[in-house]
Design a protein that fits this description.
The complex is a heterodimer. Chain A is mainly beta. Helix content of chain A is 0%, strand content 42%. Chain A starts with 21 loop residues before the first strand and ends with a strand. Chain B contains one helix and three strands, in the order H-E-E-E. Classes of the chains: A mainly beta, B alpha+beta.
């Protein structure tokens, strides 16, 4: 089933130049898996400044999907004054259910937000699990430890490239938020901070074998 | 230790320091940077 819905945004600017123009940026979000979205799913579109990735997204819009299924259509509406001409921008699409992330594009969708090449089609990747509603879903849920904790995670891909043969790089984060693992030769350690889906690893120290 | 292993280890630690968000799907952990790019993918 195809369903369309629109995400509209009135960008909040403290000062809007008189010559600012309104930009419409339509697009669609999809994924390849044969999975139906739950009714409570929401779509979030972020326009991020890749020149200054530490800045908050220039736009961050969320909207319920309702009974919609992919491809999901959106339309961002904003003043061109929020775009810095020399910078590069990209879109990140996230589909979540009750705060749990289901899909997101691994590679931000690079585009010129003032003149995007059409069509804008963001293909997202499955990063969470879709849980079918059950009779017990109405019961209060028990808080659970983040799924990232207390596992030995072995690196398979580093910034899109497979790890070198015969090397093992790993990550473990304990419930006490102590993180560490192997860097392939040396061991490393850091303090982790986890809040929801955000993760920050503090200053990393390592042994000096190699 | 070869230079390539050294470089990989350095890139690994640099990527860890740039992590902003995480997601687990089954036995796969993905760590993303602040720009939303997938930096590190792990399995368990």
């Amino acid at each position: 089933m195809r369903s369309l819905f629109a995400v509209a945004l009135a960008a909040v600017l403290t000062v809007t130049p008189a010559f600012a123009a309104k930009i419409d940026l339509p697009g669609q979000v999809t994924y390849r898996e044969r999975i139906a979205l739950p009714d409570l799913a929401t779509l979030e579109i972020q326009l991020v400044d890749q020149t200054l990735p530490s800045l908050p997204p220039r736009l961050d819009v969320k909207a319920p999907i309702g009974h919609g299924q992919v491809p999901l259509s959106f339309n961002l509406n904003f003043d061109d004054a929020i775009i810095i001409p020399e910078h590069t921008y990209a879109l990140i699409a996230s589909i979540s259910v009750e705060g749990g992330l289901l899909f997101r594009n691994f590679e931000p969708y690079a585009l010129n937000p003032l003149a995007p090449a059409q069509p804008v089609m963001i293909v997202t990747n499955l990063v969470g699990q879709v849980v079918a509603p059950s009779a017990s879903s109405a019961e209060p849920s028990t808080p659970q430890s983040p799924a990232i904790l207390d596992s030995v995670w072995t690196l398979t891909t580093l910034e899109g490239a497979p790890v070198l043969p015969r090397t093992k790089l790993s990550l473990t984060i304990g419930a006490d938020m102590r993180a560490g693992g192997s860097g392939g030769c040396n061991s490393w350690f850091a303090q982790a901070e986890i809040q929801g889906e955000t993760l920050r690893l503090g200053s990393i120290t390592a042994t000096l074998k190699g | 230790m070869t230079q390539s292993v050294n470089l990989q280890e350095g890139a690994f630690r640099e990527a860890l320091g740039a992590v902003a968000t995480w997601s687990v799907a089954g036995d796969q952990l993905t760590l993303f940077g602040a720009d939303g790019k997938a930096l590190l993918v792990f399995t368990r």
